[in-house]
Amino acid sequence: MAVTKIHPIKTTLKYALDYIMDESKTDEQILISAYGCGHETAYLEFQMTKERWNSSAKNLARHLIQSFDPDDDITPEVAHEIGIKFANKILKNHYEYVLTTHIDKGHIHNYILFNNVSFEDGKSYISNKKTYKQIRNISDELCREYGLHVIEEESKEKGKSYKEHMEKNKGTSWKAQLKYAIDSAIKKSKNWDSFLQIMQEMGYEIKEGKHVSFRAKDQQRFTRSKTIGDYYTEESIRERINNRNEFREKNTNSLHPVDRIIDMKNNEKVKNFKGYEFWAKQHNLKNISKTLTIMNQYGIKNIENLYCSIKEESKKISLKSQEIKTIESKINEISLQIKNIEIIEKYEELYSNYQTSQEKAQFYQAHSDGIILYESAVTSMEDNLKINKPMDISTLNNELDRLKNMKKIEVGKLKTQKNKVSELNLLKSNLETYMKSKKPIIENKKEH
């Protein structure tokens, strides 16, 4: 598993970079990587990016820490590999960063120090609860990919007794059942009234007042929804319904909306609530009909055709993703060229004066930042010219704009393709669940 933390750096950027690149902590600097900058000149290049975009951002950088559990069987090299994937997924190649893997505190941890200002568009990184949740999710996904433990979210419910905790694990707690019912109803509700109707169809008696309350069949007392967690107050439920409806409106790429059908044989709610069982049967009939209609519109005759279609359409996602990665690689390459040209133009006269100076040591001491940046940019440009033809900055900027527009178009196509594959997979799941529920039970009978 990995624990993640992030905090801003406002004044001590050079110190923070020196700390994370300390040789004693990073296996003699073997475990250091950088993106969009040189790790030795990162603090200067971060500032150059900020100046280039005339950014007024107060934060100079962000410090992201990813710590691994000592009990996880992981080497520093694998941790560093995870760190690179982690940084690239979070920052999406828009921010310069330096990544180091430390091995000095009994557990392995990655330090990612990235520019607060994007070198691609000059926008500042937004750090809030939503982006931190994305960081946690990406870290957890990578831990699963590499077979590491993942920290499960701790319960935020208030006042839960030990008895209720045990009952929840067994699926017998009234509050646990109510949470499940509310979550299910929200997914199917268009507004508050339809939510209450669905809850009634699932077998709940409802009492509205200052706080909405629910009572299941055979339950003696009503349960106020607010007592099962902040996520289940009336205000939160209304907000969740509205948010889901807004999400549906924004994601209407599918021309054939269909819901997932319910496994009648294995669903605990179907077994325990007659009202929910009745509703689920109607729900399944309506959605298996939609499923077959959509399959027909796609020209899919049977489940074997559906499997083939999913396979072919999934291949298109991989191809489109690779196209986007190629475009992103070109964008990063050109952005780096533009950055190097600007550095060379800014410090060319300074460097010329340094070369002709009679007191080079003193001159270097006074102007080391500019000299280091100039030499780093020249080296990078020379390496690039071995592969690509030289272009002026105006041509490079035009090419950069063209590639960004192309990426935007291709990302739109990728989203459409992913939606199509998601829909096909939903059709597959519905068809398999429905066929399983209708499969006759054949008993072996002895012949007399």
From TrEMBL:
Xref: Pfam families: Relaxase
Domain MobA/VirD2-like nuclease: 19-148
Keyword line: Endonuclease, Hydrolase, Nuclease
Gene Ontology terms for molecular function: endonuclease activity
InterPro entries assigned: Endonuclease_MobA/VirD2
Protein name: Endonuclease
Native species: Anaerosphaera multitolerans
Lineage, uppermost ranks: Bacteria, Bacillati, Bacillota, Tissierellia, Tissierellales
